């Protein structure tokens, strides 16, 4: 789905598909450099990170293992609840492994700060975070994020894996959702 297909639902297009792919390529290059000579496991947070994971994994010019976790921090609205539950855990034992958690957006930081301390307790060799988007103004918990695509204003965005009530995930671009859609 393109922005044109949901034009009246968006205030603006923040990042086009081409811009997103280019930035993900840069992040992959950076990660590849940092983990040269080491085995790497990237962990995608379902469901939002599916697109980032798929494009990032393919941007690598090396082998990378992929695993997935599902956590719930939200109801179905547009605000974080702060309550984190593991809905699907890793299939991989990460002890001694180098792990990069891949997410599509850090909003309050509650999910990822909880998740990194959870993963750190499993004795990995290292855990770092990569997120495509971050909302610095919304941050409530300090999260040490090593790889960030872009910092964005504190507005609700959709597309490229980001949803509002399970819609817009399949939008190619990332756009700001028009308030009339959720109010
Ligand atoms: P946090 O715990 O507040 O950092 O929120 C993390 C999760 O909330 C993200 O992984 C998204 O699934 C969801 N989220 C936060 N902001 C947005 C947004 O602007 N659009 C869509 N989903 C969002
Ligand atoms: Mg998410």
UniProtKB/TrEMBL annotation:
CDD domains: PRTases_typeI (cd06223). It comes from Nocardioides szechwanensis. Its cofactor is Mg(2+). It is an enzyme of class 2 (transferase). It catalyses: IMP + diphosphate = hypoxanthine + 5-phospho-alpha-D-ribose 1-diphosphate; GMP + diphosphate = guanine + 5-phospho-alpha-D-ribose 1-diphosphate. Residues 19-165 form the Phosphoribosyltransferase domain. This is Hypoxanthine phosphoribosyltransferase. It comes from the Bacteria. It is found in: Cytoplasm. Belongs to the purine/pyrimidine phosphoribosyltransferase family. Keywords: Cytoplasm, Glycosyltransferase, Magnesium, Metal-binding, Nucleotide-binding, Purine salvage, Transferase. GO terms for cellular component: cytosol.
């Amino acid at each position: 789905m393109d922005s044109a297909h949901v034009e009246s639902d968006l205030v603006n297009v923040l990042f086009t598909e081409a811009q997103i792919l280019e930035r993900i390529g840069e992040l992959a290059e950076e990660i590849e450099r940092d983990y040269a000579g080491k085995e790497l496991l990237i962990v995608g947070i379902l469901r939002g990170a599916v697109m980032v994971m798929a494009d990032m994994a393919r941007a690598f010019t090396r082998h990378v293992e992929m695993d997935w976790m599902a956590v719930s921090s939200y109801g179905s609205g547009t605000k974080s609840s702060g309550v984190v539950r593991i809905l699907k855990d890793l299939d991989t034992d990460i002890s001694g492994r180098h792990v990069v958690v891949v997410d599509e957006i850090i909003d309050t930081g509650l999910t990822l700060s909880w998740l990194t301390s959870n993963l750190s307790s499993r004795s990995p060799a290292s855990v770092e975070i990569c997120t495509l988007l971050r909302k610095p103004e919304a941050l409530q918990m300090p999260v040490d994020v090593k790889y960030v695509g872009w910092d964005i204003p504190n507005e609700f965005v959709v597309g490229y894996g980001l949803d509002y009530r399970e819609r817009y995930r399949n939008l190619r671009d990332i756009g700001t959702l028009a308030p009339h859609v959720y109010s």
